[in-house]
Specification:
- With 65 residues, the chain is mostly helical.
- Helices cover 77% and strands 0% of the residues.
- Helix 3 runs antiparallel to helix 4.
- The N and C termini lie close together (8 Å).
Length: 65
């Protein structure tokens, strides 16, 4: 999935993102707005993982969509 598609369908994908990364807050979701780099940063911060691990989780998440 490309970034434009995620941004364009953010309302649909945001529910799935919240299911996958439940520690993300409503404020996090407002900041992310479908932007992959913002999602990676927020996942990294919320879960205390490396940027590479966050990117890997997002890649796996996108493949399942």
């Amino acid at each position: 999935m490309n970034t434009e598609r995620m941004e364009g369908n953010w309302k649909i994908f945001s529910g799935r993102v919240r299911e996958r990364w439940g520690k993300l807050t409503d404020d996090d979701m407002d900041v992310i707005q479908g932007k992959r780099d913002q999602l990676a940063g927020r996942v990294q911060k919320a879960y205390g993982i490396t940027k590479e691990d966050a990117q890997k989780q997002i890649d796996e998440f996108e493949k399942k969509l």
